[in-house]
Amino acid sequence: MALDLGFLTSPKNPPLVGLDISTSGVKLVELTEAGKGDLRLERCAHEPLPRGAVVDGNIENIEQVAEAVRRAWKKSGTRARHVALGLPPASVITKKIILPGGLSEDELEVQVESEANQYIPFALDEVSLDFDVIGPAQGSPEDVEVMLAATRKEKVEDRIAVAEAAGLKPLVMDIESYAARAALGRIVAQMPKAGADQIVALFQIGAQVTQVSMLLNGETIYEREQPFGGSQLTQDLARAYGMSFEEAEMKKREGDLPEDYAAEHLQPFLENAAIEVNRAIQFFYTSTPYTSIGHIFLAGGCANMPGLVEMIAERTKVSSTVISPFKGMKRSGDVREKQLNLDAPAYLVACGLAMRGFD
């Protein structure tokens, strides 16, 4: 599901780079086809963002974000300038609707706009609107099920402005949770029996919030946000060691911290993270008919923290793995393997966005 900004206009698709803009930084991924349905990771790069440049998914400083995108693009070494961008799930309204089958594209568009008025609390001229026909409606084969997606135009325009200011051409605007699901789908397909009939939990631990998604046979059955993220540890370090937030974040990433860091700060953060994950799972059980989870995947910038995945597995009693969206992909010689192993979980959304080039 994505807002198409003019993609697929030529017989051969241009190379498309996935560009993920989050609170903590920008991530860029370029993929190519490697034959027989395989993909190859050509390049990836990330650049941190100054605090306050992106807040709650809103771009507050277009110049700062565009400059970070320029640096990431240059660092990656890619020549591709066409990009797929993502919008935070909280800024997009999605709704499944039932419409008569057999309508032309133009007739569908009129019907979708008419239906959208019921679900969107804004004037339609303030909204970017798109839809996707899912297939025949269950129990009513003469009708079709349609996914409607809408967001405020300014949300789309800000991301377009960032890309264009960085010298890039935005072609696709996806929803970050859909991009993450696409990248996760590749990994689940590599599980025993392709993960069939077991619930897979995805926890994307970001700077400010943790995105919780539960999937069953490729379909999302539950989603929510938890107000918990890695910046809580960074703020704790800044206070404890008398640093700026930016300095604390840098030293946290590099592991350049005093001896008491692990015991006094990291361990309590890991315990709190495990409690938050377990709490989210219990909430899922109490608010849905489901009572078990087959596997937990951790993604986001915090996922690779030493000891986190083991602590979550112990507390939840569920098999847990730190995800690498590039598992099973070939790698180009431009990819630094050691660094990629550390950063891979943070590239989940950017990888899913890059995969839009092969739709």
Automatic annotation (TrEMBL):
<dbReference type="InterPro" id="IPR043129">
    <property type="entry name" value="ATPase_NBD"/>
</dbReference>
<feature type="domain" description="SHS2">
    <location>
        <begin position="16"/>
        <end position="184"/>
    </location>
</feature>
<dbReference type="InterPro" id="IPR003494">
    <property type="entry name" value="SHS2_FtsA"/>
</dbReference>
<dbReference type="InterPro" id="IPR050696">
    <property type="entry name" value="FtsA/MreB"/>
</dbReference>
<dbReference type="InterPro" id="IPR005883">
    <property type="entry name" value="PilM"/>
</dbReference>
<dbReference type="Pfam" id="PF11104">
    <property type="entry name" value="PilM_2"/>
</dbReference>
<dbReference type="GO" id="GO:0051301">
    <property type="term" value="P:cell division"/>
</dbReference>
<protein>
    <submittedName>
        <fullName>Type IV pilus assembly protein PilM</fullName>
    </submittedName>
</protein>
